[in-house]
Structure formats: structure tokens, C-alpha cells
Amino acid sequence: MQKLRDIVVRVEERDDPDPVINHSNALPIMHEVLHGLKRLHEKGETTTIDLRSIPFGPGDEEALLRQLGCGEISIELQSLGKSTICETLYPGVWVIDHYNAEGERIALNIEINRVPEIVQSQPEDISDSIIRLNRQLNSENFAC
Amino acid sequence: MAEELKRIGKTLGESLRERGVSRRGFLKFCSATASLMALPPAMAPAIAASLEKAKRPSVIWLSFQECTGCTESLTRSHSPSVENLIFDHISLDYHHTLQVASGAAAEAAREAAMHENEGQYIVVVDGSIPLGNPGYSAIAGISNLQMLEETVAGAAAVVAVGTCAAFGGLPQASPNPTGAVSVSDIVKDKPVVNVSGCPPIPTVITGVLAHFLTFGSLPELDSLGRPMVFFGKSIHDRCYRRPFYDKGLFAETFDDEGARKGWCLYRLGCKGPMTYNACATTKWNQGASWPVESGHGCLGCSEPNFWDAGGFYNALSIPDSDITRQAAYVAGAGVALGAAAGAINRNKQSKAASAHETVTIDDLDKQS
């Protein structure tokens, strides 16, 4: 049986050290985004695409996000970890990137909507705001 | 917090609000949970409505003939925000690898959980059950078979985690010295979910538990008892290298031009066409990569009898020239093609299994 030290280790220089392999898996998602935009424009229907459910190869996700680019609005949400919400170069198309408290990604979605659902103040939180603000205004220690 | 929740009996929505999590944070949690359960993002509001009212289920985890790889997979998983919140809301009342108690005290905890949650608790099993000498595998002097039978008697459902529990796995590999069988070979009167894999993908394990927590029911299952959302499509059908397969571009060795260019690994023994699992989308290690992306073919670890299905580096038994030819005829219907290759292989394997014979290398040789 061959011993470990008998195995010759040879380092080869690669002619093409960083070959760009195009798996073309971003293209169908771009078409899906286009269909989603049409539905939003014509019928007001929103669409959400879970990018973690797409069988991307190396570089596909980066290629898709590069194609979508960054538009005029960027929002940061701090709740159970950071989330970034960016409108892309195509108004109505948003990239929503959720992280946990340890900075690990837990969801990456494209939402096609006028304003992403998670950006809007939620009725439960508004109700809680009324209670808290009312309590504060009626507090003996309150002063403006 | 777990004990506090158990005592007070709060719902998940209530406990999150008490921890200062806003509704917006809760929606983020639900969005991540939908992704975890491989459900469409549009399901997030329904998940929110259900989780808001979710009560805390008791889970009893039994480990039999196993290597602890399944528990390692789960505990090394990295989505703490989601999974910790899920696990905060599950009462893991017995897990002899993780719990502090041992011996009689541990068994007392199991019996107490069974008694207090009669008819409502979940039993998670990793490892196969030996039907030979009971001494092959016993816990606190109780044989695996006896412990399984008495624990599942009052359970709502059973989750068989890992290929050993789901299908017998390595302990059942020929010549099966312990007479190992799967959970579903023993449990016939309770719903059994098979979460196969060696080990299973951690988010698939938590995804199934999250589904039960969220909806109070088990997910839709395939013919082998596996959740359709994770096991509904073959590795081959979801593989990012599939376009190369369809073009007839294959790596012939692990260091040739095709390997460097990321071509299809079919000829190097990839079992993707016959294997149903979520690796191609869920991936491993925080979504960093998965075997095929790392340049190695799929071993088929989530399928029955994968240890006895010939060599890992022998190509499947469909002559590739025929596949390439068929691919030309059925361009655009590649999914069916992969399924056909899988079905043919499964037939061979099931025939071999029923005859207690292994699939030979000749059976699997692409030239045969």
C-alpha cells in the first residue's frame, strides 16, 4: 500500500486562475421579476421570490443582484438582527436581506411591491404606540 | 425561559411580544420561517396567524443505533434567531446526548413528559432499531425496541431523523449483523415522518418541527414518508450543473478541464438523478456550499439502501449516450428524464433489496 509520503504533491499554475463560469440561472429570475412587475402595474398584485429556494450555482446570485443594482431608496431595519431593504434600479422591485443577531443571513427575498410589507408600520405596533404614548403623556414625570 | 413558558402556557406570539419583539420583527421571523419550511413567501401572513396562537409542544428525542451525526447536524446549525426561537418554544424533555440527567433520572424525565403530554407529544428518533439480540443497543437497561414501543404509544406523531431511523441506514447495510430495521418497520399506528440524510440537512429537521409547531399538523409526505417540500424533487432536477448535463458536458475525472469548468459529475458517479433531497437549494454550512458545488457527486445518502447501492464512483446504470440522445429528443422536458433515470435505478435497487442482494457494480456500470 502506498504511504502518505510517497504521494508526490505538485502545484500547478492555472492558465486561467479565475474562470468566469456562467450558469445562466439568474436569467429566468429576471424574467420572473418582469412578469411580477407587469402584475403589479396592471392588477396591483404583489410578488415575493425566496432566493434561498432557487438552485443557484456559484456566482448566479451575485450576477442577479448586480443586474438589479441599487436604486434610490435604502432602508435598514433593526429587529431580531439587521435587515437591509433596497429598491433596485427598477422601481417596484425591492431586495430584502434579513440577518439574525449573529449577522448570519436567514432570508433573502425579492419583493415586487410599491412599498415592502415589512416597511409599513403594523397595526399591532400602532396600537401599542397609542398605549405607550398615552401613558407617557399622563405620567407625572412627563415634561416637554 | 423554557420553564417559564411551560408553567404559564403562553403562546409564541405572547412570548415574543414580552421579549420586546415588534410586529415587524415577528413578520421578519415569519418570513425566515417560511423560507425554513420551504414554503412560498406568500405564506408568511398565514404562518404569522398560526404562530401567534402556537402552543408549546413536548418533544422526546430517542437515539438508538446511530453515530450522533444527526444531533451534531442539528446542534451545529446556524440560524440562531429562527431556530432558537423555535426551540425556545419546543419543550425538549428528553435527549440523552444533550440532557444533564442520566440513568434513572433521565428515564423519569421521559416518563413524566409522556404522562403530562399524553397524546400530544412528538417523538424524534435517530438511529435504527436492532431486532437481534436486545443487548446490541440498550439505554438504562431498556432495549431500543421496548423504549420505542412504549414511548410512541402516547405520541401524536413520530419524526424519524436520519437515514438510519428512516430506512435502516448503515446498521442495516449487508450483512445487517444486528437485524436493524427502520422506525416505520415498527411503528404502524402513528404518523411517521422520515427526514432522511446522512446526516439530514439541519434546517430540514427544524423545518419539520416548525411545521408542526406552526400548523399543528405534519407536512405532505412522499411515497417514502418524506416531506414533499424538501424531498419532492431530485438533486438532479434542482442542480445548477443540470444545463451541462443537458448539453452533454461531463467531467471525466476530478481534475480534468470539465471538472475545473464545473461540468456535470454524472460520469463520476453522482447519484443526483436517483436522490431526493434539498441540498441543491438549502445547501450546507449557512448556505455556503454543498457536495456538488464542492466538486463531488451526490452519494445518495437520503435514499434507502444507499450503502449497498454499488460504488459511490460508479456512474448510474443509464448509458449516457442514450441519455444524451434522449435529451435531444425531449429538449425542455429534462425533469422527466432525470426522474426516469432515478426510477429505473430505484427499480433495480428495490428488486435487489427484495431479494436481499446488493446491486452489483455491473448493474450500475454505465456501460452495462
CATH class category name of the largest domain in chain B:
Alpha Beta
Strand arrangement, largest sheet of chain B? 2-1-3-7-9
Q: Mean pLDDT of chain A, nearest integer?
A: 87
Residue fraction in strands of chain A: 15-25%
Q: Assign the structural class of chain A, choosing from mainly alpha, mainly beta, alpha/beta, alpha+beta, or little secondary structure.
A: alpha+beta
Question: Order of strands across the widest beta sheet of chain A?
Answer: 1-5-4-3-2
What is the CATH topology classification name of the largest domain in chain B?
Answer: Rossmann fold
User: Which structural class best describes the helix and strand composition of chain B?
Assistant: alpha/beta
- The residue fraction in helices of chain A comes out at 25-40%
Could you please describe the fold and organization of this structure?
The complex is a heterodimer of chains A (144) and B (368). Chain A is α+β, with helices and mostly antiparallel strands and 144 residues long. In chain A, 28% of the residues lie in helices and 21% in strands. Chain A has a 5-stranded antiparallel sheet. In chain A, strand 2 (74-78) and strand 3 (82-87) form a beta hairpin. Chain B is globular, with a radius of gyration of 22 Å. Chain B has helices at residues 2-8, 12-18, 23-36, 44-53, 69-75, 80-88, 103-116, 144-152, 163-167, 169-172, 183-186, 202-215, 228-231, 235-238, 242-246, 257-260, 279-282, 320-329, 334-354, 361-364, and strands at residues 58-63, 91-95, 121-126, 129-130, 138-139, 142-143, 155-161, 180-181, 192-195. In chain B, helix 3 crosses helix 4 and helix 5 packs across helix 12 (202-215). Chain B is α/β, with parallel strands linked by helices and 368 residues long. In chain B, the strands form 3 sheets. Chain B has a 5-stranded parallel sheet, with helices on both faces. A two-stranded antiparallel ribbon of chain B has the order 4-8. In chain B, 49% of the residues are buried. Chain B has 2 domains: 55-230, NADH:ubiquinone oxidoreductase-like, 20kDa subunit (Rossmann fold); 233-364, Cytochrome-c3 hydrogenase, C-terminal domain (Cytochrome-c3 Hydrogenase, Chain A, domain 2, Irregular), CATH 4.10.480. The A-B interface holds A 14, 19, 21, 23-25, 48-50, 52-58, 60, 77, 79-81, 83, 96, 98, 100-102, 104-107, 109, 111, 117-118, 121-125 and B 21-25, 27-29, 31-32, 34-35, 38, 40-42, 44, 78-82, 238-241, 243, 260-262, 280-282, 286-287, 293.
